[in-house]
Amino acid sequence: MTTDSLQTFTADDLIQRPGVFAESDPPVRLAVFGDPVAHSRSPGFQNAALRACGIPAAYARVLVPAGQAIAAFRALPAAGFLGTNVTIPHKAAALEAVDEADDYARRSGSVNTVVVEGDRLVGFNTDGPGLVRAIREEFQVDLRDLRVVLLGAGGGAGRAIAVQCAMEGCERLVLANRTPEKTKPLIKDLAGFFRTDRLVGPADRLLAVPLEGPLLQEQLNHADLVINATSLGMRRTDPPVLPASWITPNLMVYDTVYAGGNSRLLEDAAAAGARTANGLSMLLHQGALSFEIWFNRPAPLEVMRASLQST
Ligand code: NAP
């Protein structure tokens, strides 16, 4: 069996048949947990990285239904795993399942990278740091220097990105979400990061606005970077997350969505003359950071990029 054609394993395999992971050659010692998980592109580029580094381990998919998430994480040591990545909908459960998590993962309320250390599980989240690297690569700027409008700030990815922006000390952060109540706790949690003497004019450095209407349009006039962290754009039939006429040429627009090429948002932004990038670069860098955490060595980034671009 080649590592790229590995079957999708299940939570039951982990919990009831932990020996099956050692039966492949090389043995499965890493995986992505999700539901659904078939769409995940992580096995392709992580296996390419493992092969390039001569590491005798394979990376598989594990389909984990919601009710089995905690048990599946706790079964990792007995099944001989080094760690996992975590995707929708298990990032919050992963934080619950680990014995320890770093500061950023705890603040984000989610873990996307688990490391097995003996019988213990340690959690990290590489989504925010991956986005920082992606923004630097795509736009040659640092997140900390930017005024950011974050669309979908109340979702899992949105919260992780908001926390990263705050920890980076970005110039301004505007949180927009369809359900505004979800940004209230975030404003409270992040306020301390924005209480500084930094002079940025009369505007609040941290605020929440609805995901529609004149308040959001006004904030776009005072922004450098717009990040879409809503799930809008994953399907071609999705409505646009912003009216095309609101997008101005001075903006950088980053869409965390990468399924199916460029989204309507990115097409509208490019037509308006704005600089654009889709979430593939964030996917690449969050994966490279996970690899670095598991193996304590630099990831073969160009191998991973080439693999991602070829699938
Ligand atoms: P999530 O927790 O389910 O959050 C979804 C977000 O989208 C929420 O803010 C939700 O608003 C908003 N939303 C959903 N439907 C909407 C609609 N019809 N109109 C307006 N807003 C809507 O999902 P997630 O895990 O944060 O993922 C969000 C996106 O990030 C996905 O597209 C995912 O692919 C992407 N992502 C990309 C990467 C990467 O590496 N590139 C990594 C992680 C995530 P409410 O709060 O109002 O429901």
Report on the structure:
The structure is a single chain. With 311 residues, the protein is an alpha/beta fold. It has two domains: 3-125, Leucine Dehydrogenase, chain A, domain 1 (Rossmann fold, 3-Layer(aba) Sandwich), CATH 3.40.50.10860; 128-281, Rossmann fold, CATH 3.40.50. The chain has helices at 11-16, 42-52, 69-74, 91-97, 103-108, 127-139, 156-168, 184-190, 214-220, 264-271, 280-295, 301-309, and strands spanning 8-10, 28-34, 58-63, 83-86, 100-101, 113-117, 120-124, 147-151, 172-177, 206-210, 225-228, 252-255, 275-278. Strands 1-3-2-4-6-7-5 form a seven-stranded mixed beta sheet, sandwiched between helices. A six-stranded parallel beta sheet has the order 10-9-8-11-12-13, sandwiched between helices. Helix 2 packs across helix 11 and helix 6 (127-139) crosses helix 7. It is globular and about 60 Å long. The site of NADP nicotinamide-adenine-dinucleotide phosphate has 25 residues, from helix 7 and helix 11.
Q: Can you summarize the main beta sheet?
A: 7 strands, mixed
User: What's the name of the CATH homologous superfamily of the largest domain?
Assistant: NAD(P)-binding Rossmann-like Domain
Q: How would you state the average pLDDT, rounded?
A: 94
Sheet with the most strands: spatial strand order:
1-3-2-4-6-7-5
* Low-pLDDT sequence parts: none
Task: Note the beta-strand portion.
Answer: 15-25%
